[in-house]
Amino acid sequence: MKKIFVSIFVYSLLCSSNFAQTKQTYQPPAFTDADRLKKVEATFPLIEKLYKDFAEKNHFPGYAFGIVLDGKLIFSGSNGYINIEKKIPATTQSMFRIASMSKSFTAMAILKLRDEGKLKLDDPAYLYIPELKNQELTSDAPAITIRNLLSHSAGFPEDNPWGDRQLAKTENDLIDLIKKGISFSNDPGLNYEYSNLGFTMLGYIIHKVSGIPYEEYIKKNIWQPLNMNADWEYANIPSNELAHGYRWLNENWREENLLHDGIYGSMGGMITSVESFSKYVAFHLSAYPPKNDKEVGPVKRSSVREMHQPWRFNTLVADYKFPNGRPCSIATGYCYGLSFTKDCEGRTMIAHSGGLPGFGSNWRILPEYGLGVILFANVTYAPTAAVNLLVLDTIVKLAKLQARQLPPSTILTQRKNEIIKLLPDYANAKSSNIFAVNFFDDYFVDSLKKDATTIFSKAGKIIKVNEVVPENQLRGYFIIDCDKGKVQINFTLTPETPALIQEYHIRLLKE
């Protein structure tokens, strides 16, 4: 028994050593253009004009914008008024109600509680709101889960006009509404349908689980660690900083009534400035790429990246056109308090808009480009998303920004070098110990030799073997320059340690 215990102990040490070695050799993707900041800065005059022209065209009384790159607010600006009557100018410190942009803070708070083991995303919501139990559209419907609430798939109807007027309602009002019975549009888990009520319930769950109101929990656990200036109650904001909201009606601005804070604020009640919100944007961008650095944020970087995953498919728009008219198909989904877009160029955009009577806002990031944009305006349902998309696309195009480049892993480079030694006749391939158990059942040595010999007879003498271009840690390709052409070899490694070659393809590239 003692020998068995020692053997297990030694084995566990070896495994731990292998895991540690993997982490030590991991190299995160990195930007390769040392002048990227200068190139982005060169776009600023145009970006400022795009915002100004758009604001004038869409009757924004006032607005403020910000551009975040590599964790810093590198450019910001403002124009117009936050208080028309008193002629108080908008600034990047002006405090705007950001409406549904609040939802990602509520989602982040839920994930923090999940990470602390205080709830599970697949918990039925009735565990925390008992009044929800047995409420469904059909008798065979599943229970609404926290994950359904986070991803707008609880079966509640889209409720923007109604929800926008509920901010000041109390927790008792919410429970009374649920007790009376909820009208469902779908069964849970079947469809995406935007629900302010769902995120209001999440605010209630935060209170129930943490023991403190969602406002206090988010302030203590997200705003303060990020050093953000924010509030839920407009009466707490100094009058010279508070943005008043307006509606453009009959060729003039009419002031909208501000609503006090209440339980529905967890879906859209947050008030903050562009300068302050930029710290939140920078934190989201800091979650990329995955790395071994120390965790320093209010939640784990992996939880932020989890927030960015499309948990609920929304739509595919094959004929989509960017605001400047450029055709580019997109697919969209909903994450946790955030929206997801993948465009025709393979770019992933994470974003969210906010709209309330008197306000419109949007933020949008390209995580793999380290770039984000923010726009707040104080007119009802200001269409801020369109211009932010235009600004983001314009910066990328004009500055010729590239996504982070993944360096090849040590094992990919090693296997590439070992493949080269076997070309073209594959002598001793079976005894090389670099191929997985499946390989020679799927690829035959005589065929490998024939294919390679035929290809190199056309390509000619090898001049240079280029570096591996990785797709990820265990898949990539490399190009071989020959005197008469180029040869490409693709290969994929197994999940075992050490990783072995399980798939292989060779081809002659056409000029």
Nutshell version of this structure?
The chain has helices spanning 2-25, 36-41, 44-57, 103-115, 146-150, 160-163, 171-180, 196-210, 214-223, 265-268, 274-285, 301-307, 384-399, 410-422, 439-442, 445-459, and strands at 62-69, 72-83, 88-89, 96-97, 230-231, 246-249, 252-255, 271-272, 312-317, 330-334, 339-343, 348-356, 359-366, 371-377, 462-465, 469-472, 475-482, 486-493, 501-509.
Explain how this protein is built.
With 511 residues, the chain is α+β, with helices and mostly antiparallel strands. The protein folds into 2 domains: 36-399, 3-Layer(aba) Sandwich (Beta-lactamase); 410-509, Nuclear Transport Factor 2, Chain: A (Roll), CATH 3.10.450.280. It has 16 helices and 19 strands. The chain has helices spanning 2-25, 36-41, 44-57, 103-115, 146-150, 160-163, 171-180, 196-210, 214-223, 265-268, 274-285, 301-307, 384-399, 410-422, 439-442, 445-459, and strands spanning 62-69, 72-83, 88-89, 96-97, 230-231, 246-249, 252-255, 271-272, 312-317, 330-334, 339-343, 348-356, 359-366, 371-377, 462-465, 469-472, 475-482, 486-493, 501-509. The strands form 4 sheets. The chain has a 9-stranded antiparallel sheet, with helices on both faces. Strands 15, 16, 17, 18 and 19 form a 5-stranded antiparallel sheet that branches. The protein starts with a helix and ends with a strand.
Q: What is the total domain count?
A: 2
What does the overall shape look like? globular
Radius of gyration: 27 Å
Q: Mind telling me the CATH class of the largest domain?
A: Alpha Beta
> Which ranges are low-confidence, i.e. pLDDT below 50, for 5 or more consecutive residues?
none
Looking across the biggest beta sheet, what order are the strands in?
A: 3-2-1-14-13-12-11-10-9
Nearest-integer average pLDDT: 94
